[in-house]
Fold this sequence. Notes:
Blueprint (H helix, E strand, L loop, with lengths): L3 H10 L1 H13 L11 H13 L3 E6 L5 E7 L10 E6 L18 E3 L2 E3 L3 H21 L7 E6 L8 H7 L6 E4 L7 E4 L1 E10 L4 E2 L3 H5 L10 H22 L12 E8 L5 E2 L2 E10 L5 H17 L10 E4 L11 E2 L9 H14 L5 E4 L5 H6 L4 E3 L14 E3 H18 L7
Parallel strand pairs: 3-6, 3-7, 7-17, 8-16
Antiparallel strand pairs: 1-2, 2-6, 4-5, 5-18, 9-13, 9-14, 9-15, 10-12, 11-13
Helix pairs in contact: 1-4, 1-11, 2-4, 4-11, 7-8, 9-11
Amino acid sequence: MASKEALLQAVDEHENQLLTLLERLISFETMSPPARNTVAIQQFIDAELTQDGFETKRVPFYEGDELLSAQKNGSDAKNYHSLLLNGHVDVATVDRDSWHTDPFKLTQKGDLLFGRGVSDMKGGIASFIYLFSLFKQLGIDLPGDLRFQSVVGEEAGEAGTKTLLKNGETADFAVVGDTSNMNFQGQGGVITGWITLKSPHIYHDGNRAAMITTGGGLKAANMVEKMMVVIQALEKLEQYWGITKSYPGFAPGIDTINPAYIEGGLHPAYIPSEAKLWITVHFYPDENVDDITHEIENQVIAAAKSDPWLKDNLPTFKWGGDSLLADKGEVFPSLELDPHHPGMQTLQKSFTEVTGEQPTLGMSPSVSDSGWFGYYHIPAVDFGPGTMEQAHSDNESLSFKQLLEYTRIMAAFIYDWCHSKGEQ
């Protein structure tokens, strides 16, 4: 069996294989939205993994989308650590007119690779699959189990990773190869919610004068206008959070409440009898969804009770969901990092071995599927190539030098972690 040193040497010697693989992944137009377009890429990845000795399973998701999980059994799995690598194959929507190159054709200019998804996050996926191929080519049999999840839905807040983990897939440690600019990252959480105001009666707009004029006598309200009471209550809570809450690794005020979308009314001939506000809430890693939503509800209800009309027609709430596209709701749980976990320490050792530097531990300003590992109590880290500035951007690019360095780090880490003995 080849040594770790031979593996690291092979990463550089066969770098064209990595480029060819990334080029193929980029060629699949897996934009989300519209989504429902990932079966072909999952079939391609399935064939690659099968060729490399993995047992694969494709799980139906939404029509036109599939989840893929794979495992290569370790030679002594009972005694050695298992590892799970995770990545999403859906990419952000493309405005082709804003691109200087074909977004679905990998283009190299010097050190930069251009194409939709190179940073977010087909670069990370290509690195994983490339390493699986090298393990096969070099005859490297790992003692610990090696698992891989190629998921769908991260771009639209869909529960791809959640579905696989809920089905019982687990490991001693997990790495989500999403965009982190080579930093070790945890994340805060995100949840969306709908706040609804509804009048028990519908009125023609000709009744507005009777509603708003002294002596008019009609006890009624315009739900679009009443939504201002809700928005003002949310602004006050958001400001209070910014003053009173903090978490290491985050700039002040990251815990926000964004009134993102509002809908209401039938048409101009009616007084709006219903209005709905869609909000996005960011919270810190040491907070949980139930406490955060309860705090928001209490704030809004208190404001409504101080309003002479809303006190008898209190708002209702609907939180989260499994898809921004299918049911207009999402949840991304938070992920706290444990720098003392053996998996983190091994990854840090591999990073230093390859780069000669210490990794940066921090918190992502965005969210990824890594939070689901925290939710299911699987030690994990988000660690991938590419920068947040490039994710979702026009003319998305990735440094090939960084991708190769990432691949060497992951090669050393996979080798060492799956050769380290687990707890008995």
